[in-house]
Amino acid sequence: MRTRPHLAAISMLVLCAGAAPGEVLSGNVKYLDATSVARPARRVKVEMYAVIGGGGVFLGATRADISGDWSADVGPVPGATGYFVHYVADNDATTVGGSVGGAAYAIPQTGMPGSGTFAPFVIDTITSGGPVQNESRAFAVADAMQTSWLYAEMVRGSGPAKAATVFPGAGAFYSTGTSTIHIPQENRFAWDVIGHEYGHRLAHLDSLDMNPGGYHQFGTNNIGQPTPNHPVRSKLAGLRLAWGEGLGTYMGTAAQAMAPHPDSFSTGDTWYTSYDVDTPANTFHVNIETHDGSPEAGEGDETSVMRILWDLADGTGGSEAHDRVSLGHNTLYDMINDDIAGVDELDDLWDYLVTRPGATDALRIDYGAIFEQYGVSPHPMGVTFDGPPGMGFPAPTFEWERQNDDRNDLFNLIVFTDDLSSRILDIAVPGDTEFYTLTEPQWTTLLGSGFGNYKWVIAGSDTTTYTSGSYWSDARLVYIPSAGSLALLAVAGGAGLRRRRR
């Protein structure tokens, strides 16, 4: 427990000397953000003390509101000659201290007027080298976590138990063994990093992943050993790591999209900013909604995972050609938390989306468009009419790219009516290939459905070790020309058409 101040400690405090017995004490507390703007220290604990006979007597505690305002009736305090307060780095989300199991940091009020109202107090998180450097900066860390806690309250229906945070920690990580969040000194203003680690806590509390932990980086497939820095991982371990890390980044970003937060540096946008305030050259940015900042390496890459989760949930469905889905952050959390038993990899989410009640081929294609956009599903390339004849005309050849870090090796070709109301062909493509030419019976079946527009999808799976997928692509248009046009193609032998890669 933290020792309460005694007479020796009073010399560092300026007393609220004019407060009468039973008077209401009040004040306002803020902290400086990365740009030295004062922000409310939301929901922090305020401990109140009376000065009696030269010593400090603890009266009780209250909390600041979302504006940093606080007030409390301390009741009659016989013999009190003044009052002082301690602001504690403790809010709804977390208690921030210097070690696992250590006491929370606290800052005393100073510069008070002689009345029951304390002067507005701003905690200086910027000045370095002072005696209370870590104590002050802990309030910036705590406030970032408050936003993640509010997000958790929104998507879960109730706020999770308070987390213990170690600051400064030896790196940014969440320890499942001690249930503690660790934030290093350089990330004290890095809301996205802090939100990512709080996301790991939510995943731990609600069993949203089975993250094995370990070295990882954006844009890298965690299956196998992509770089010498990576340990050798099985497919399952790599997929679990990608899911857990991508989920953490998604939730940290979603928290700032849903929950109140100050409009300060790097908050409330779609960029994951690993802000290193002490060595700015080490700061990097990765966009969660676009391809900026990092490529994607498929289902084994946290980048693919976080961007897929974001596009499924965000409210911009329809504003981007590939993003026609707007599940909402609450709905997505409910799916992962309540509907998918034992979720631990991206394939679990895909399987649920395409098999849940109400799933149609049109919806599967909409989901597939997002998975294709971020490098998991195969990517359709085009159609050429240069195959064997059906009804006298050359059959189409469908081409695609594997994607999924070139690991998709089993494919299914589906041809639909233009309105996606029915499937004309559903073909298990033989062999590991990136193109398929319709057989004469298949071509005859398609021609028998009439000339005009059709849609096609290529679905892909990775069968290494075990099968993940089959991930659908977005639908592409294929136009079956008139009989006369097909006859010309037959005579030309497909001349002038794009050449296939073999």
The whole-number mean of residue pLDDT values reads: 90
Residue share in β-strands: 25-35%
Radius of gyration: 30 Å
Structural class: alpha+beta
Strand tally: 22
Molecular shape: elongated
The portion of residues assigned to helices is 25-40%
Low-confidence stretches: 1-15, 489-502
Major sheet characteristics: 5 strands, antiparallel
Count of helical segments?
Answer: 10
The tally of domains stands at 3
N- and C-termini, Cα separation: 71 Å
Gist?
The chain has 502 residues and is an alpha+beta fold. It is 26% helix and 26% strand.
Question: What do these coordinates show?
Answer:
The protein has 502 residues and is α+β, with helices and mostly antiparallel strands. It has three domains: 7-133, Immunoglobulin-like, CATH 2.60.40; 168-309, no CATH class; 379-492, Sandwich (Immunoglobulin-like), CATH 2.60.40.10. The protein has helices spanning 7-10, 133-156, 191-206, 235-258, 302-313, 329-339, 346-355, 361-373, 440-448, 483-492; strands spanning 24-32, 38-40, 45-52, 55-63, 69-73, 80-88, 94-97, 106-108, 121-123, 163-166, 173-175, 180-182, 271-274, 284-287, 379-390, 393-401, 410-417, 423-428, 435-437, 452-462, 468-472, 476-480. The strands form six sheets. Strands 17, 18, 20, 21 and 22 form a five-stranded antiparallel beta sheet that branches. Strands 1, 2, 5 and 9 form a four-stranded mixed beta sheet that branches. A hairpin with a 2-residue loop joins strand 3 (45-52) and strand 4 (55-63). Helix 2 (133-156) packs across helix 3 (191-206). The longest helix is centred in the N-terminal third of the chain and has 24 residues, at 133-156. The chain is elongated and about 105 Å long. The model is unreliable at 1-15 and 489-502 (pLDDT under 50).
